[in-house]
Amino acid sequence: MIKKIDIKKMTMSAMFAALLCAGAFIQIPTPPVPVSLQTMFAIMAGLMLGPQYGAASAVTYMVLGLAGIPVFTGGGGINYVFRPSFGFIVGFAAGAFIAGLIIERAEKLSMKNILFASFMGLAAVYIIGCAYMYFILNVYMNKDELKGIGYVLMNGLLLFLPGETAKMTLGAVLVRRLKPVVIKA
Question: Which residues span the domain enclosing 48?
């Protein structure tokens, strides 16, 4: 059976891909590291559009960057796959998919359900991102000293948790207000 294409969601998926591109360059200067808006936009895509269209927006963003368009925080191009941070870009698609799947199966669009879906999607982003970072640092780059799990968790997760918590909360508030209006219209 051929699945019907939802033109509105497809258009919004492209919009979220554009927001992911812009989110790479919108940075909030916070100590010790600046916070970008990419994870918020990726998770919001899943929450607003559902798992398939939400993940499609993140995949579109990734393909644009790998094709050489400088949409990643450090530019673009196929060589970006060898950077320790590339796993987080892959994680955006998984995070959007998981958040979209959870909220799609929720009985109602409550803040509790949106926040739960947001943080589960965020967990997927960081599990994939940190695992990839560990692999690239220790296998591909293989510097003189190996980077342990503690190093990866500190530099790939813990420094970002306060900012991510604030962004997931802001994203949940936006989704709670926008989804009933935008998707139903």
Answer: 7-182
